[in-house]
Amino acid sequence: MDTVLTVDVGNTTTRFGLFTIEGGDEAPELLGSCELTTQQPLTFDEARIQIAHALSLLPDRAPTGSILSCVVPALQDTWRRALGADGRARPLVVGPGLKSGVRMNYDDPSEIGPDRVADVVAARAAYGAPAIVIDLGTTTNFEAIDEGGAFVGGIIAPGVALGARSLTQAAARLPMIELRAPKRVVGRNTRSAMQSGVVLGEVARIDGLLDAMIAELGLSDEAALVITGDGAETIAALLRHRTVVDDTLTLRGLALLWVANRK
Fold first, then answer.
1. Residues 60 and 129 in one domain
2. Is 135 one of the annotated binding-site residues?
3. In sequence order, what DSSP letters do the residues of 168-233 get, joined into one string?
4. pLDDT at 180 over 70
5. What percent of the chain has pLDDT over 90?
6. pLDDT higher than 70, residue 82
7. Is 90 exceeded by the pLDDT of residue 63?
8. CA pair distance 10, 261, nearest whole angstrom
9. 168 labelled ligand-binding
10. Same domain, yes or no, for 81 and 125?
11. What pLDDT sits at residue 167?
12. Are residues 86 and 149 in the same domain?
């Protein structure tokens, strides 16, 4: 049995997951997960401290392997070296050369972000094909898996928190707001008006883009719609489309990638 540490370094947060992996075809079992703020810039020693902190928050099992997804190019080598320090095995890094087991119908597969690859791998394994993944974070990503199980592309849009920050930074009189849905669409004060535009606007955008993707790809009504990331439960409850909330999708995808490449 292996114990694998999965690390998903995003622009805003870094998520850690600890999995046990049996031999054969059994799915990785999640023992625990935690989330820390992504530091930029980050030194080698600071990354080691974050790893030690994360492991102290997770079940007491020493990892025998690790895998890294990093969407911040300037941090990737630092995290790779830190994960391989202190006598640990050399980590796998999601990127060109790593097998995904998924056919990538994309102009340049090397452009696909590692978190997007992990989402597709996990969604296909858990929900089959066809499927669409919505991953909420600094960006809102949509990933499409066709009837044959191939990744056929997606959409990258500004995330809801980024939209709120942009409003505040660009307009001097607009305050920072709590990212929750207002009681009414038509706001009767500045904060509720902004919440309507940001939160309900994001919901309308997701619903509209899902309609367009399903129509363009000719997906059946059986297509799984999976939502993950920051505030997934809140957004899912407001969507017109019925979606499955899967908080650990990306981490499970990384564990599956480790299994596919461990030899």
1. no
2. yes
3. HHH-TTPPP---S--SSSS-SSHHHHHHIIIIIHHHHHHHHHHHHHHHHHT--TT-EEEEEETTHH
4. yes
5. 87
6. yes
7. yes
8. 22
9. no
10. no
11. 87
12. no
**Of 11, 36, 24, which is closest to residue 2 (Cα–Cα)?**
24
Catalytic residues: 115
**CATH number where 35 lies:** 3.30.420.40
Phi, psi of 246 (to 5 degrees): -135, 95
Arithmetic mean of pLDDT, 169-190 = 90
Contacts of 215 (CB under 8 A, 6+ apart): none
Structural contact between residues 253 and 188, judged by C-beta atoms closer than 8 angstroms = no
- Token output for 52: 């030690």
Whether the bond between 130 and the residue before it is cis, its omega within 30 degrees of 0, is yes
14 labelled ligand-binding: yes
Q: Is the pLDDT of residue 221 over 90?
A: no
* Model confidence, pTM: 0.95
Which ranges constitute the DSSP H helices of the chain? 44-57, 73-83, 114-127, 160-170, 190-195, 201-217, 232-238, 249-261
Token representation of residue 159: 């995330």
Residue-number span of the structural domain to which 184 is assigned: 109-250
**At 9, which helix (H) or strand (E)?**
strand 2-9
Q: Among 67, 93, 119, identify where a domain stops.
A: 93
Assess whether 217 and 136 both reside in one domain. yes
> Has 13 been labeled as part of a binding site?
yes
Residue 128 and residue 84 in one domain: no
